[in-house]
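Annual report, structural modelling task.

Input specification for the adenosine-5'-triphosphate complex:
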Amino acid sequence: MEISAPSPHCAQDHICWGAHASHPERHRLDVENVTVYYGRLLALHDIGFSITCGHTLALMGPNGAGKSTLIKALAGLIHPDAGNILWNGNPLHDMPREIAYLPQRSDVDWSFPITVRALVEMGRYPALGLWKKFSGHDREIVEKSLHVLGLEHLAERQISELSGGQQQRAFLARALAQEAHVLLLDEPFTGLDAPACQSLGRLLDSLAGEGRLVIASHHDLNTAAEIFDTVLLMNRDLVAFGPAQEVLSPERIRETYGMNA
Ligand SMILES: Nc1ncnc2c1ncn2[C@@H]1O[C@H](COP(=O)(O)OP(=O)(O)OP(=O)(O)O)[C@@H](O)[C@H]1O
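The model returned the following structure:
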């Protein structure tokens, strides 16, 4: 199953980054027959799909369906027991700078003493030379990332002092500073109120519009088609993959979640 990119676009309340905007369809993720075991437990079975930059993809399924496992496999944190994960035809994990990973909120130590600016600067580390010295270009990218996420006024604050929505934005700013094409977000909407969800949804949409590929695990069937253009329904196996409105049919939801839509 394959999805190619829509035309690039930018949300009005968001500044275009530019560097990724041209020809997003040239960058393509192919997930081929990926299977993952934890010991004897089969967590993912023969998952396959293809998608290009320019899309927002929701991974959806019941608890234990394997959504986080798939995100971790894409992020290179878990090595599949079978299958391939390719970026433009080459193993994705050979290009770690292309991947930015936002773990589940519960997996982050929010009390860790670090300012928003220092967190965003971490996004530049993979690109720094041998002496780990920040160039003017690196500083410019950090400032731009803070600006795009509306975090300038919070730059010197500790991340522990931020709201949940601001913390998500700080981590996304780090991902922007990395200039990765693939953003992997594990349940980014968890714990956010409705306005923060809407704001994050618009942001993900505009990041895709600028030529990135946004992949996130998501639980809310009611908001999925508003936020994401593409949905992958899974329950250890792939149930359906394609445009959100088509995939989220009552029959498919029943098949995946075992309940009435
Ligand atoms: N580190 C691990 N060791 C052993 N089993 C694991 C591990 N991580 C996850 N699992 C198991 O793998 C299966 C898939 O888990 P995963 O966390 O990927 O599902 P999920 O769809 O993200 O679930 P949720 O919606 O509850 O977050 C589950 O049965 C889970 O118990």
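The chain has a mean pLDDT of 86.
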